[in-house]
Each structure stands twice: as C-alpha cells, then as structure tokens.
Amino acid sequence: MIKKNYVILCSVHDKHEFGMGFYMSRHIMDNLLDFAPVSERIYKIKVKLTYYNLTWISTHVPTEKKLKLSKKNFVVLWRRYVMKFPMMI
C-alpha cells in the first residue's frame, strides 16, 4: 500500500489474523532490496544503507494460549531461517 509519505509492506494470508508488515518512509523505497514473507508469522525486509545492507526480521510469536506444538513449530521454523544469516559479533 503506497500513500503520500509512507509505504506499508505486508503479505495477505487467508486468515488475516496477525496484521504483520512494515511501515516505512516512502524515501526508503528506492533502497529496498528485498521484502520476503517467510511465513504468516515471520517477515523479512532488506534495505541498502550507505555502507552496508540492513536486514530486519519481524516475528509474531505464538502466545501461551496456543498449543505447545504450534510454538515448537514456530521456533523450529524461526531457527532454520535465522541460521541462514551470517552472525556478526
């Protein structure tokens, strides 16, 4: 969704439950390298900055009311995805 001064990047799923996405200044769009919804609970955006590229990962973690299997599946998916990125210390 593109507005006058901002952009909302989101992915539409059948359930429309989580409302996940990124809200950013329209000026950043020229530097947008990637927007990837990994699942209905994990979204990634990559932006080119002056000296490096920055990757944001946004998650919607299952709450305690959810089944343990749902939480475990989320953690497995999240770990598998995050391990693809180089770690910097």
Helical percentage: 10-25%
The strand order across the widest sheet is: 3-4-5
Low-confidence stretches at least 5 residues in length (pLDDT < 50)? none
Q: Report how far apart the termini are.
A: 36 Å
**Overall form:** flat
Mean pLDDT: 77
Count of helix runs: 1
SSE succession: EEEEEH
Strand content: 25-35%
User: Could you give the count of β-strands?
Assistant: 5
Q: Tell me the number of structural domains.
A: 1
The major sheet is characterized as:
3 strands, antiparallel
| Structural class based on helices, strands and sheet pairing | alpha+beta
Rg for CA atoms: 15 Å
Give a structural overview.
- With 89 residues, the chain is an alpha+beta fold.
- It has one helix at 68-82, and strands at 6-10, 21-25, 32-37, 42-48, 53-59.
- The protein has one helix and five strands, in the order βββββα.
- A three-stranded antiparallel β-sheet has the order 3-4-5, with no helix packed on it.
- The termini are far apart.
- The model has no long low-confidence stretch (mean pLDDT 77).
